[in-house]
Amino acid sequence: MTAKHKRTLARIVLAGALLIAAYFVPAEGLWRLAAYAVPYFVIGWDVLWRSAENVAHGEIFDENFLMSVATIGAMATGEYAEGVAVMLFYQVGELCQSIAVGKSRRSIAALMDIRPEYANVLRDGQIMETDPEEVAVGETIVIKPGERIPLDCVVLEGAGSVNTAAMTGESAPRDVEPGDRLISGTVNINSVLKARVESVYAQSTVARVLDMVENSAERKAKTENFITKFARYYTPAVVFSAVALALIPPLAFDGAWGVWVHRALAFLVVSCPCALVISVPLTFFAGLGGASKQGILVKGSNYLEALSHVDAVVFDKTGTLTQGAFRVTEIRPVGMEAEELLRLTAAAESFSTHPIARAIVERAGDRETGDVKVEELAGRGVRASVDGYTVLAGNRRLMAENGIDLQEAETPGTAVYVSVDGAYAGDIVIRDTVKEDAKLCVDGLHAQGVRVAMLTGDRRPAAEAVARELGIDETRSELMPEDKVSGLETIMETARGAVAFVGDGINDAPVLMRADVGLAMGALGSDAAIEAADMVLMDDKPSRVPQAIRVARRTMRIVWQNILFALAVKLGMLLLIAVGYANMWLAVFADVGVALLAILNALRAMKTSGAA
After folding, report:
1. Architecture of domain 119-213
2. Residue 118: Cβ-neighbour burial (10 angstroms; 0-12, 13-18, 19+)
3. Which CATH number fits domain 309-322+435-551: 3.90.25.10, 3.40.50.1000, 3.40.640.10, 3.40.1260.10?
4. Model pLDDT for residues 196-236, shown as the tens digit of each residue
5. Which backbone phi and psi does 396 adopt, to 5 degrees?
6. Residues known to be catalytic
7. Which of 135, 428, 454, 584 has the highest CB neighbour count under 10 A?
């Protein structure tokens, strides 16, 4: 509890004691009014002051104005105890609301407390504690156990574990060694690491994340904007309704002035829109926090609302559903052992920097070879002399040029055809393998009634193989970046709701911007994709996509629960007051109770589990 909360609580206790004392004071007339006026001003002076300030600035109709008019009216009609009690319970409700909001904000602030305070920079053999913003690219920093990693960097010396929970939502520590990339904002757990800085602070992951979080509140959802506009018209409407309730029955039907004025005052008390005005933004804020706990950063509540209505999710393939790294998946020898085919091909490819060549060399590992002479054949492959053998390794064109009859590889992937001394020796198939949780992602989306599509620039056989393996509903392959945009628009034309796109590459930026909701793979994704996207998945796991949809749908469900509950209770109470079945005591309990229940319900959006 903050100092401000403690002062408010002290005022509530003091005003309550003075109210009880005033009830037993044997006084009449002005003395009785004075006895109740003391606790009234102790508990309500700030509400009266804010109301007067707002009226002076032309902002008349708010909850401060409603409370001021209702309580002053009660005091004026001789209902002193009710006037003080209404203000007292209103302040109790405001205190509880403030504590709840503060708790939510502190939880999210603690979650996002990832800003590094300093960096240990190694300069001239000395370690200097420096502001991260003053560290240049290429400098060496030292990260001690327990310290937050200040900048995006690559490990040079040391090995240990890193806690990435604040950035990725992943609770299990990640082991790192020389050559591994470290993300700023994460925490070094157990060993001293030396690392080379890869980007300045302003361009680091932690800076981008903090910027997203700080600016997310500026992008309001349609429902939030609706509630703001609703309150703007609702409050004057109920004020004029209360005036009509106080005047029409006495003037038109000879009703008792005291009875109808009292009903009108109770009408004002229960009509306060604070349950809606506070709980709806708080629900979205809690939803943003719940998503960030799972490593899903949302740039605004409007995107969270849009994601809750998603009908189709469209994925890029390479680097999004697949690893983005080639691996040998099949070795199919003809007339020799598989190990010998792999050894000769790896030796022939050992001097190439092509990703496919590197995959073959990596699979072969350290194998003994004699003299190796290699000739690069642009666009076709290589010709090499390995241990006295003449080895050709490459595509169909290379085999055709040398009169080699090959057996076509029907397996999805890229085939490297090999001949040894003019005879076909077999082929090695390389594929980009799917991510471990890609299938879990697609199944999770289908379980939520969401269609799944894939747009990729890869060849059709490779794309269709991935689609079959994962159970994707629709696939379009061999697309240029502009083709991806038109492909997405075609899907959007047939969608019954919003369409989301998930990608990671520079060529995905136009599609991310065109989609109703763009989700970028953040930890390894390109800067262009992250800037263009509306949401960022910090740990590059596709399974975060159905989790994000669950969070969005749960958040919207809670928003509408609060809206419908608050409106139903208030409408019911207004009718009961109008016909005389409820008084001001019940009105104030209803108003405070609805607000507190709505706020407690809103905080449920911070939970990180539960079905949509």
Report:
1. Distorted Sandwich (2.70)
2. middle
3. 3.40.50.1000
4. 999 898 888 777 766 665 555 555 556 666 666 676 677 77
5. -60, -35
6. 316
7. 428
